[in-house]
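Following up on my earlier thread - several people asked me to post the actual chain instead of describing it. Fair enough. Here it is, all 233 residues.
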Amino acid sequence: MVGCSNGNNMDEENNKDVIEEKDQDNQQDNENNDKEENKEKNNDEKENKEEENKENETVDIIPPEEAKEIISAKSNEVINFIKNKEFEKLAKYVHPEKGVRFTPYTHVSVDDDIVFSKEEMKNFFKNDKSYLWGHYDGKGNEIKLTPRDYYSEFIYNKDFAEADEIGYNKVLSSGNMLENQFKIYDNPIVVEYYFPYFEEEYKGMDWQSLRLVYEKYNDEWYLVGIIHNQWTI
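Reply from S.P.:
Thanks for posting it. Predicted structure:
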């Protein structure tokens, strides 16, 4: 009986060794798969960026220093009106013909993005109607919100008036979506209020920015777009 017991113990140890080897192999396979997925994702992001750069090369853009000189004072007023929810005051800066287009993630969609007129902007926070603003990144669920809720989630979800960096016709944030604002808007000035990160543990994957887009009309610069941007899947 003792011999039988020792044999069973040896079998158990051998089985345990086999299981551990299989676990190690599985772990190695998982690590290799993760590396391959990350490699593919990086390649996709690189290809997207190259395509985006090719698009932007064909567009004339006002140089950053000139853009800053033109718009910095006005944009400072605008971002503070947005921060303080003073949309009646903000409305006077809204393009009188084009209104304001709202883009929840960086890629501007002429077909799908919601546009509010100058008059609609005055009553932005009094409007209780739910709109389809787009679709959530990753999930694909509809972004169906009232203007008030959209403001909290996709306009001023961070204190952008106190952003770490401000770019004038200079893209500071970069994700895996195509950048097309300079192609969609007519010779615009894009002011980006950018936070590179909030928590060090996320290593920059929690960055956020808000872009205010201006176009010239009758020798004045007006707000035509509000683009929210953040790290996307």
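The CA atoms of residues 44 and 50 lie 10 Å apart. That should answer part of your original question.
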